[in-house]
Structures are given as structure tokens and as C-alpha cells.
Design a protein that fits this description.
A: 14 helices; globular; B: Four Helix Bundle (Hemerythrin (Met), subunit A); 0% strand
């Protein structure tokens, strides 16, 4: 009937296409990212006995980030003189793509997963390793002091915390016996991994907060020391593109934490699996936001010492404990 | 489809590798090296060796390229300043890249990743771990030298005649 248009319509209405475009794909990532910006301001304000965003909205300033979005997109877009325009523009936009790619690996409900690949967990962590070089390139390309210092700090911090992050995830892989995220969720039907993997979950949470450059590990941005660090020179829409990946990563990391430690979409069958997944993720997000308003920023030397000594040792101890839990005492 | 993808990945890898050697600015060279590694990872995915592919990304882009970028930015030539001895270094890099391409070529046949231990479409984690530790243990240890090679290579690349 429709002739040549039929394949196009089939493609647009296929479940995979809808997942990529609507949920859990691009549209929902953009909306959730903006809402997280609002939530963060609101939570921080409540902790500090302030009100936070109030006016831009039907309820509690919920449209504040969308207002900011419109404001930023009408600002003048310019690239600073003597900067490296190619990397200056490419680095934050590639960062957005990386953040969105992370969400595509998460199983939000049975079958509601864009890429159900066999090696989902290493894939997630491998994609994360791309971000330090992008932040470094962004800081370097601005050809300005504070952005460059911020970029170097990001590099120090993210490379130091990547190793404990991988090692803490290894505990989960040993418990589940698989690298596939959907199967890791299925393996938790008898009990969430956060109980046998309490130490691993703690290390994972701390290292992922450092990977996301959030307080108390926000040294690369540190607005009171180096005025937003590597983002300092970004104007208008590009500033949006530099800020965006932070919130998308927060969403993706919290969803991953829920998936590998909190039983993912598992829960009483009164409510749909998607509800359980999203509400657990929201709890983890608010926990990470509370860290922001509770702890002061650490110094760079404290951060690196903790990463390379304490956290690395704890991660190896956790692997030992997991070995005992999975295999039992070695027999000679 | 697979042939087209192979051609695309191969073209990206070779093009980016040439750019990595020929780029005037070392930072662009390092970024091009990262793209070349991504192309190699794509070739691994085509060979149904997703596990190797993801670790290619994590180790080579996440660590080697970052190390090179870091060294180049900290002790390397300033923006716009030409590095010293580009000719000799590019010869060395050409040899290294041809070795890499040769290795990729040697791996790029159907028998390179047989069975389920490559963690492609069907993944047996137990089989993968045993074959990594028992069959490929020595090769794995040799591959860990890549980090040392990256640090030395980055320092050699960043040499300028600015004096002490």
C-alpha cells in the first residue's frame, strides 16, 4: 500500500529504533540529564536550608534547567583566540556521545536494553576510559592556564581511580560468573550483591564519584580554586555540551551501580521492573548528590594517595574475600 | 556488509596511522593514534572477539594514548613549536606501525579466534580465563611491557632542543 515508504516506516516503528530514540535512548537521556541538574540544585539547597530554583515552573522550579538551556543556546558562540578550534569543539561533543553510549548498555527491564552484549560490564568501563583524554584535550585546546591545570588534574585523578574501579567490578564478575549485565541482574535473584560485596560496592561508589569529577573529588572543576577548570573558556552551547556529560554520566553510573549491586530491575512484582530500576537509580543519584553537599573538597595529594594506596589495597582485599565466598577455603 | 565494514575499519586504521606519523603537532598525532587504535578494535569486533576489542580500547586508548598525551603536554614542544628529529622518530614509528599492522594481519584470519574462548557472540567466562592464563600466559606477560614502551616512546617523541 505504502510502497517504497514501507521499509522506512518499519524501521521507525521497530522496537530497537524506538528504544534508541525515546527510552532508554537519546530523548530520555536529554530530559533526565536536565531534570538531574534541577534535582541537584534543589537537594543541595535543602541541605543548606535554602529554597533553590522556584520560579521557572508549575512545581518547585522544575523547568529551571530548560530555561537555562534556552538562555545558553542564545548566547554568542565564539572560540577563544589562539586556541585549538578543532579539539575545543570536538572534545565536549564527543563527551556527550560517550555519556549516551554508556546508558545504551544498561538493562532497564527485561528486554528494555539497547545493546545486550556479552561483555557489557568491561564495555561500560572501557568506554569510561575514553573520557580522561577528552578532558585533557579540552583543557589543552583552550590555551589558557586554568583550563590546562584542570585538564591535568582530571587526568591524574581519573587514571588513578580507574584501576580500583575495574578491580572492584571484578568482585561482581566473580560472584555472577558472567560479564553480561542482564545475566548479572538475573544472578541476583537470590540476593543482591551489595551484601556479599559491601566493600566492593563502597570502592565502586567512591571511584565512580571520582570518575564523574563530582564533589568531594571535583578538583578538575574546583570553581573556587581554578574557576571551573577545563570548562572555564567554554561559551554558550559549548558550555552546555561540556556540562552535559557530567549529568549523563551521573545517570549512567547510578544505573550501573543499581544493576550490579542493587539487583537492577528485580523487585516485588506488584509494580513493573522499570519502576524498581528507576527508583533504585534515583536513590543512588540522591546519595551521590548528598555527598556533594556534605563533604569538603579533598586536596590533590590526598586524592592521589588514597587512590593509589588505600583504595587499590582495599580492592585487592575485596577480590580475596570474594574468592573465599565463591570458591571457599583452598585445600592443599 | 562485513566486507564493507572491514574496508571501512581498515581504511580508518591506516589513514589515522599515517596521520599519527605525519601530523605537525604531536597532540594531533597522539589523537590520530587513538583513532587508529579504535579502528583496530573495530577489526577485533569483526572477528567476533569482543572481549579483546574492549580491552584494546581500555588499554591502548585509555592508557597508552593518555600517557603519550600527558607526556607531550607536560614536557613536549609548545603549541606551534616543531618537535626535534621528526625524521628519525617517524622512521621508528613507521617500523612500529608496520609491526602492528603485520600482527593484526596475522591475527585477521578465521582461525585466529576459534571456539567460545574469544567471548564474542557466545561467551564462556571460565573457558576464556583458563585459555588466557594457560595457553596465552607468556604472551600476556609480554604484552604488559606495552606500558613501559609507551612511556619511553612518549619521552622520545617529546624531545625538543630547548635545553635544560
Amino acid at each position: 500500500m505504502l510502497g517504497p515508504l514501507q521499509p522506512l516506516i518499519d524501521m521507525v516503528t521497530s522496537p530497537l529504533f524506538l528504544m534508541i530514540v525515546l527510552f532508554p535512548g537519546l530523548t530520555s537521556i536529554a530530559i533526565i540529564g536536565a531534570l538531574l541538574g534541577w534535582l541537584e540544585r534543589k537537594v543541595t539547597a535543602r541541605v543548606q536550608l535554602r529554597i533553590g530554583p522556584l520560579y521557572a515552573s508549575p512545581a518547585g522550579g522544575i523547568l529551571q534547567m530548560f530555561a537555562d538551556l534556552i538562555k545558553l543556546s542564545f548566547k554568542e558562540l565564539f572560540v577563544p583566540e589562539n586556541s585549538d578550534a578543532f579539539f575545543f569543539i570536538m572534545a565536549p561533543t564527543t563527551g556527550l556521545v560517550i555519556g549516551a553510549a554508556l546508558v545504551g548498555l544498561i538493562p532497564f527491564a527485561p528486554g528494555l536494553q539497547i545493546a545486550n552484549i556479552e561483555v557489557g560490564l568491561p564495555a561500560f568501563l572501557a568506554i569510561i576510559t575514553l573520557s580522561p583524554s577528552l578532558v585533557l584535550l579540552a583543557g589543552w585546546s583552550a590555551n589558557s592556564k586554568f583550563p590546562f591545570i584542570g585538564g591535568l588534574r582530571a587526568l591524574f585523578q581519573q587514571t588513578a581511580y580507574e584501576i580500583p574501579l575495574w578491580l572492584s567490578a571484578l568482585g561482581v564478575i566473580m560472584m555472577a560468573g558472567t560479564l553480561n549485565l542482564a545475566q548479572i541482574v538475573a544472578a541476583q535473584s537470590t540476593g543482591w550483591f551489595i551484601i556479599p560485596q559491601a566493600l566492593g560496592a563502597f570502592i565502586f561508589l567512591v571511584t565512580s564519584v571520582a570518575e564523574m569529577e563530582r564533589l568531594p573529588f571535583d578538583l578538575p572543576e574546583a570553581e573556587s580554586e581554578i574557576m571551573m577548570g577545563w570548562q572555564a573558556e567554554y561559551p554558550g552551547v559549548l558550555f552546555l555540551a561540556a556540562q552535559g556529560p557530567g549529568f549523563v554520566k551521573l545517570y549512567a553510573f547510578s544505573a550501573l551501580f543499581t544493576t550490579i549491586y542493587l539487583g537492577g530491575f528485580l523487585g516485588p512484582s506488584l509494580l513493573p521492573p522499570l519502576f524498581w530500576m528507576l527508583s533504585k537509580t534515583l536513590v543512588v543519584i540522591i546519595l551521590i548528590m548528598l555527598l556533594r553537599s556534605t563533604f569538603p573538597r579533598v586536596r590533590l595529594d590526598q586524592l592521589l594517595r588514597a587512590g593509589w594506596t588505600t583504595l587499590l589495597t582495599l580492592a585487592i582485599v575485596n577480590i580475596g574475600i570474594t574468592y573465599l565466598l565463591v570458591v571457599g577455603l583452598p585445600t592443599f | 556488509m562485513t566486507d564493507l565494514l572491514f574496508l571501512a575499519f581498515a581504511a580508518v586504521t591506516i589513514g589515522a596511522a599515517i596521520l599519527a606519523i605525519e601530523a605537525r603537532d604531536l597532540v594531533y598525532g597522539a589523537a590520530a593514534l587513538g583513532i587508529a587504535f579504535l579502528g583496530v578494535a573495530g577489526l577485533f569486533f569483526l572477528l567476533d572477539a569482543a572481549y579483546v576489542g574492549w580491552f584494546q580500547i581500555a588499554v591502548y586508548i585509555g592508557a597508552v594514548v593518555v600517557l603519550i598525551l600527558f607526556t607531550v603536554m607536560l614536557v613536549g614542544p609548545k603549541m606551534g613549536e616543531a618537535p626535534l628529529g621528526l625524521k628519525r622518530v617517524s622512521l621508528l614509528a613507521a617500523i612500529l606501525v608496520s609491526l602492528l599492522l603485520g600482527m593484526t594481519g596475522a591475527l585477521a584470519n578465521a582461525t585466529a579466534f576459534p571456539g567460545k574462548d574469544s567471548c564474542g557472540s557466545g561467551c564462556d567466562l571460565y573457558l576464556l580465563s583458563t585459555s588466557l592464563l594457560k595457553n596465552y600466559g607468556v604472551q600476556l606477560e609480554f604484552m604488559s611491557l606495552v606500558m613501559a614502551a609507551a612511556v619511553i616512546g612518549a619521552l622520545a617523541l617529546s624531545k625538543t632542543d630547548r635545553g635544560p
